[in-house]
Each structure stands twice: as structure tokens, then as C-alpha cells.
């Protein structure tokens, strides 16, 4: 069963060698980096998008289990490592600051350009990662989760540009693999996705604007 995957891996290695890197298109603006904080953004995105599935699929007692003294030591160590990663490996790509049509522009302006908010997000990142871990751990083995995290890290960390679309494939794998919710929780998840899509379409259609340095109408988009 591993042979098709080995063939895929060999093909990927051959492509990277032939292409001179993993980047397609404009290589000068997509230089691979050590953007470790991408994993923090993915955790917050995944937890936010699957919040109702987590609440409906994972026992509340497991989510809110009282931490032991040892757990508090792990929490403090994790927070310290996260702070170091944010300090060392946060990248603000020029594209993020140049195009105010994309929601990432406003997220970057709110979170990344304000030091207090940037580090104040650490508890949210930690809680998000913990909830996502619990959602997967109730259904998957430790080996599966470990491989998933490694594969996701290899995909996201090299990218200096923050794009929500980069999170779609890791999120879908996570969403399929986690414990599934039923009934009202599934309906709430559907309503959440519908509201996000409806808001996006509404902004695109009804809130056009113009740039002073360029002809034509600009519209909000992901």
C-alpha cells in the first residue's frame, strides 16, 4: 500500500530538482522561509471553523479538564516557546501590506503590526491547538496526528505569505478525521459556513471601491 505514496514522493523530489524549488511562478516574491507561526494561524482558523463540531463531538469534561501542576508547567513552557517563535519567525510579506482588497490585509494590520495583540494572541493559539488536538485524539491514533502535524508543517512553514486558502487542504483533512457531530451542532456548523459565504458574497457585490493610483473598481475577496 505504500508503493503509490513512494512513487508520489519520488515524483515530488524530481519536480523540485527540475523546477529549482517548490515555488511555481514568481520565485522572487515567494522565497521559502521558516514561517513557524503559520501553524499557530492554522490552529486558530481550524478551531474557529470547527467550533460547533468540537463542542458536539468531544465530551465537555475532556475539553475543560482541570490541569495538574505538571500540565501548568507544560503550558508555561509552550507559551514561552510560542512567544519565541512569534518574535523570531513572524513574517509580514509586502503583498499583505499592499493589497487592501483581501481580508488578510486587515487581519495583518490588526494582529501582526501591533506587538501587544501579536503576543496577546498566544492564549488563543494555545487553546485552539488544544481543542483541535482533543478533536483528533478522540478518533485518531497518536501516530496519525503526529504524521498530520509534520505533513502540515512541511506544507505551511516554508511559505512567507499568509493566505487563508493555504489552510483549506489541512483543514479539510482535519475536519474529516475528527470526531463528527450530529443534530443541532451540525446545523450550527452549516449556518456558520453559510453566514461566512453570504457575508463574503455581500461584501464583494455591494462594497466596491476605487484606488487612486489605478483604473477600475476594486472588490473585497479572500
TrEMBL record:
One of its GO terms (molecular function) is dolichyl pyrophosphate Glc2Man9GlcNAc2 alpha-1,2-glucosyltransferase activity. Keywords: Endoplasmic reticulum, Glycosyltransferase, Membrane, Transferase, Transmembrane, Transmembrane helix. GO terms for cellular component: endoplasmic reticulum membrane. It is found in: Endoplasmic reticulum membrane. It comes from the Eukaryota. It is a multi-pass membrane protein. It holds the Pfam family DIE2_ALG10. Pathway: Protein modification; protein glycosylation. The chain crosses the membrane at residues 6-24, 36-60, 72-96, 142-162, 183-205. GO terms for biological process: dolichol-linked oligosaccharide biosynthetic process. This is Dol-P-Glc:Glc(2)Man(9)GlcNAc(2)-PP-Dol alpha-1,2-glucosyltransferase. InterPro entries: Alg10. Dol-P-Glc:Glc(2)Man(9)GlcNAc(2)-PP-Dol alpha-1,2-glucosyltransferase that operates in the biosynthetic pathway of dolichol-linked oligosaccharides, the glycan precursors employed in protein asparagine (N)-glycosylation. The assembly of dolichol-linked oligosaccharides begins on the cytosolic side of the endoplasmic reticulum membrane and finishes in its lumen. The sequential addition of sugars to dolichol pyrophosphate produces dolichol-linked oligosaccharides containing fourteen sugars, including two GlcNAcs, nine mannoses and three glucoses. The keyword Glycosyltransferase applies. It catalyses: an alpha-D-Glc-(1->3)-alpha-D-Glc-(1->3)-alpha-D-Man-(1->2)-alpha-D-Man-(1->2)-alpha-D-Man-(1->3)-[alpha-D-Man-(1->2)-alpha-D-Man-(1->3)-[alpha-D-Man-(1->2)-alpha-D-Man-(1->6)]-alpha-D-Man-(1->6)]-beta-D-Man-(1->4)-beta-D-GlcNAc-(1->4)-alpha-D-GlcNAc-diphospho-di-trans,poly-cis-dolichol + a di-trans,poly-cis-dolichyl beta-D-glucosyl phosphate = a alpha-D-Glc-(1->2)-alpha-D-Glc-(1->3)-alpha-D-Glc-(1->3)-alpha-D-Man-(1->2)-alpha-D-Man-(1->2)-alpha-D-Man-(1->3)-[alpha-D-Man-(1->2)-alpha-D-Man-(1->3)-[alpha-D-Man-(1->2)-alpha-D-Man-(1->6)]-alpha-D-Man-(1->6)]-beta-D-Man-(1->4)-beta-D-GlcNAc-(1->4)-alpha-D-GlcNAc-diphospho-di-trans,poly-cis-dolichol + a di-trans,poly-cis-dolichyl phosphate + H(+). Belongs to the ALG10 glucosyltransferase family. Its EC number is 2.4.1.256.
